[in-house]
Amino acid sequence: xxxxxxxxxxxxxxxxxxxxxxxxxxxxxxxxxxxxxxxxxxxxxxxxxxxxxxxxxxxxxxxxxxxxxxxxxxxxxxxxxxxxxxxxxxxxxxxxxxxxxxxxxxxxxxxxxxxxxxxxxxxxxxxxxxxxxxxxxxxxxxxxxxxxxxxxxxxxxxxxxxxxxxxxxxxxxxxxxxxxxxxxxxxxxxxxxxxxxxxxxxxxxxxxxxxxxxxxxxxxxxxxxxxxxxxxxxxxxxxxxxxxxxxxxxxxxxxxxxxxxxxxxxxxxxxxxxxxxxxxxxxxxxxxxxxxxxxxxxxxxxxxxxxxxxxxxxxxxxxxxxxxxxxxxxxxxxxxxxx
Length: 339
Description:
By secondary structure, this protein is an all-alpha fold. The protein has helices at residues 6-17, 23-40, 54-66, 73-92, 122-135, 140-149, 155-160, 201-213, 236-246, 267-270, 284-297, 302-309, 313-320, 325-336, and strands spanning 166-167, 174-177, 195-198.
């Protein structure tokens, strides 16, 4: 067997994965496996990965379960699943005993336990766009919401778009979404995330007016980003702040606070950078989840919705589709009546 220390093994594992997964995934795996490295430092009988046994896997799982942070079932599952994948990789390198990964037990989650349920309500999303159309027309925030709500784009996808990627004239306006990791605009699903999405003529008009009136005339790495700040292409956190800011109820169509707060004394209302502290504000991910749910409620097939959102059917069903079982049953009946 290769004499790989746990530290070296984790480093090599992450380097191998880097070619096939996003930087965010690499950071997540590094964080999850850091607990194993913390634990293994206290094990005098483990110097190399070849020393790790099935009993060690059991002891590590118990230590992690009862250890730092008091992890819940979802956290335990993600960490043990990653640990199992790591061990399987180590086996393929000849660094630890064969089939050792089978000794890693992972919690079984109840139905829906691993799914996030917060989202921007579909009715609120449509009303927000109408509000932006009236009061913040062709602003960056208006375009960001259109790209997420109508285009089903992630914040990284919206950030990646250049002026040259949009075709706004004619009867078939469209936006090309491209993976350019060497130019600081990667997509979550890399090349598989590349696609061309059609947009409505009214959406194209807003984007065209934004380019002519609100977009800063700046470049970033020799490219002309569609979404801009005075300094160039915005950071993803800037787009996240845009979403939190415009989804605050006190800034939206009703102008009312559902939490009985005084807007004049509420940090989330007074300071745009604190908008995320409003219990009702929603970031890009929750906004996108609400948009995807709205498409599914409108009977758009999951295959078409998933292709536009660059999301697999399984992920779409588990993490994005927030329709109730009753809603799904009623929509299925419409198709049953045809046969």
